[in-house]
Design goal:
383 residues; EC 2.3.1.9; ten-stranded mixed beta sheet; Peroxisomal Thiolase, Chain A, domain 1; Thiolase_CS
């Protein structure tokens, strides 16, 4: 089978909710990283085969196939198509998978994968409210097949985060310590310039504005998001945010044709699913499945990026896998850096690639929990 190579990966800074990027249209936010990738690589814009972008809640400014719209908003050739992917929080990681699969199949040579999300303009509740306008209280409530299988079991991320914490015996205080560490790692990485090569500044913002100066004492004062979930507060949850990210995936033929230097090879990609009521647990079996499929052990992996949807998700994964916390989310995660849903997968991939290059590591693994109880896993090899 043909190989798929990463030759570039960039992202916008992550804007906090109602922050610097709040008024940027989703197409323009996506165009920002698309244009930067195209401008700095020796591939004629008309030679791109496709643009695959992740986005969740494709309504309002994110509707109308945002991948295509963002490419056009960047002023790029009309002939290049685009398609938008929704695998919930893993949308842009799946976009990278689709790009790599197109290249590995031999049907495409140059694919730009990524994602965008403007959560200030389109809050996480927006799609639910839109559905209610058509008489649907939730995406599942009116399905007789769903109700026959799952009855009235809650499909709720807060429920899942608390259930995971309870199942693995993870106390609120431990989650708060994890969250504080995420902010501290992100602050140190920012001050050391670890993100500088991967961020394309926008509107004068050259760093992630989601990183907080906080303390365990301040976290302890927060009320739970709901009394039913006593351990889950805003402090131990990912932040809503505005951002975009993009990864350029090419074939070996494209490397030769355009004189490109590959930065990494896609070593493995897979996606698995788990019980949707657990909702956030899938990275655990998905990681086991991925390693088995490609004949690797976690000890072969130098760095891991796992999305910090909630502290309990990553902590349970670490308990089950035994992977070294010191090599997990080494520059902080979504608790500190934000979780702009459709952009997060490409953001994690971008950070993973740059950190492997900075530290000299060889293999990096990325995974994240996704709606419906799903999880993608990507393993890249730095070249």
């Amino acid at each position: 089978m043909a190989e798929a190579y990463i030759v570039d990966a960039l992202r916008s800074p992550t804007g906090k909710r109602k922050g610097t990027l709040a008024e940027v249209h989703a197409a323009d936010l996506g165009a920002h990283v698309i244009g930067a990738i195209v401008a700095r690589n020796a591939i004629p814009a008309e030679d791109y085969d496709d643009v695959v972008f992740g986005c969740v809640d494709t309504i309002g400014s994110q509707a109308g196939d945002i991948a295509r719209t963002a490419w056009l908003a960047a002023g790029l050739p009309l002939a290049v198509p685009g398609t938008t992917v929704d695998r919930q929080c893993g949308s842009s990681q799946q976009a990278v998978h689709f790009a790599a699969q197109a290249v590995m199949s031999g049907t495409m040579d140059v694919v730009l994968a990524g994602g965008v999300q403007t959560m200030t303009r389109i809050p996480i509740s927006a799609a639910m409210l839109a559905g209610q306008a058509y008489g649907y209280s939730t995406p599942f409530a009116e399905s007789s097949g769903w109700r026959a299988r799952f009855a009235d079991a809650p499909v709720n991320q807060f429920y899942a985060a608390q259930r995971i914490a309870d199942h693995w015996g993870i106390r609120r205080e431990a989650m708060e310590a994890f969250a504080l560490d995420s902010h501290e790692k992100a602050r140190r990485a920012t001050e050391a310039g670890h993100f500088s090569r991967e961020i394309v500044p926008l509107l004068g913002l050259a760093h992630d504005e989601t990183v907080r100066s906080t303390s365990l004492a301040r976290m302890a004062e927060l009320e739970p998001v709901d009394p039913v979930y006593p351990g889950i507060t805003a402090a131990v949850s990912s932040q809503t945010a505005d951002a975009s990210a993009a990864v350029l995936v090419v074939s070996e033929a494209a490397l030769k044709r355009y004189g490109l230097t590959p930065r990494a090879r896609i070593h493995h990609l897979s996606v698995r699913a788990d019980d949707p009521i657990w909702h956030l647990r899938a990275p655990i079996p998905a990681t086991e499945y991925a390693l088995k499929r490609c004949g690797m052990k976690l000890s072969d992996i130098d760095l891991v990026e796992i999305n910090e949807a909630f502290a309990s998700v990553v902590m349970a994964w670490q308990i089950e896998t035994g992977f070294d916390p010191a090599r997990t989310n080494v520059n902080g995660g979504a608790i500190a850096l934000g979780h702009p849903l459709g952009a997060s997968g490409a953001r994690l991939m971008t950070t993973l690639l740059h950190e492997l290059e900075r530290t000299g590591g060889r293999f990096g693994l990325q995974t994240m929990c996704e709606g419906g109880g799903q999880a993608n896993v990507t393993i890249i090899e730095r070249l």
